[in-house]
Fold these 2 entries.
Entry 1:
Amino acid sequence: AQSVTQLGSHVSVSEGALVLLRCNYSSSVPPYLFWYVQYPNQGLQLLLKYTSAATLVKGINGFEAEFKKSETSFHLTKPSAHMSDAAEYFCAVSERDTGRRALTFGSGTRLQVQP
Amino acid sequence: DTAVSQTPKYLVTQMGNDKSIKCEQNLGHDTMYWYKQDSKKFLKIMFSYNNKELIINETVPNRFSPKSPDKAHLNLHINSLELGDSAVYFCASSQGGEQPQHFGDGTRLSIL
């Protein structure tokens, strides 16, 4: 069974600083990879996805992520944090080439942005 | 237009009661899901339906029964509610495994 590890349940950065949220997966076959953001009392919004094209994926709100097969990682970055980025971020995977389709989520990382 | 809509948004009820949560998607997707988010924000798949057929049924108590009357709807009925059922339940939909899932805003279930 595949699993997803997000290192750091809480990350705090200053406004304007680099954001780095880490995600590692365990799967013999690279899965489909997604990053979602959840604002308080809301559902999950897709930030970006990796399927099998370019390894550097650009998403919404200035976020991007790089798929590194050798490191089984899909870390999320943003060059300059904004106060509005404060939220919970989830890395998720779904199996490739099966009919399963369900997402397996990491435990989430809460991003705080200090003024 | 809301893509994935769930009702109700909040549900407060007593132990032992039976309740239902409804979900509708207008995206034309062929697969719908129910996820549970616990108090620590952890998200876990409960059920998945593809074209009205149940394809995933995780280790969920049989007090939980999903029903999909058509491709655009997936409801969740819960019998004999227990304290541990308190959580946020999310409905989602997608078209194909590589396409992202679209989530509803969640139903916050609180058991008194």
Entry 2:
Amino acid sequence: NAGVTQTPKFQVLKTGQSMTLQCAQDMNHEYMSWYRQDPGMGLRLIHYSVGAGITDQGEVPNGYNVSRSTTEDFPLRLLSAAPSQTSVYFCASKGNGKNTEAFFGQGTRLTVV
Amino acid sequence: AQSVTQLGSHVSVSEGALVLLRCNYSSSVPPYLFWYVQYPNQGLQLLLKYTSAATLVKGINGFEAEFKKSETSFHLTKPSAHMSDAAEYFCAVSDWSGANNLFFGTGTRLTVIP
């Protein structure tokens, strides 16, 4: 089973460049989310979606856009990369209910120079 | 709003010694709590979760956690550490809004000394 697949695994961007981080899941989960992981700060929620066509902001949404046109895909867009966006990004999906397990991708390590 | 606090960003134990990783929660309603583990250069995977069915929860790899409402705690323990337990551990709480978001603590890095 593929689970949650993120691409790319590594990326280096120059300040001001744009890019899209891809995330796909094959578990038919309605809920998907993006987190960033920084040393000493744990995982912070960027954006999330509770179903196709529905997205909302998390704790740290500035500088990121998302869309959800299908149940399977939830891309994260950086419109104009900044050094402060250097981080490891994780996509996650989970089933309905507050006690359900979240499944994580392997992460994308992004460096903005 | 729900939140969790992990005390100790780094914990070192000797192989075979008790592992104790601390997590305290803040919630005005009974929480759903989780422990996740992250091995180097990997994503997070679920160790165990508390869903109010039992206060002592057993997870994978010999880990367990006890929910203590009076102490607002959900500490993670393992009787005997193994070298393979070296990883980063995150406590998380489920949001009580309709979105089911998870909010994570800052993590505890466990080092196991041979």
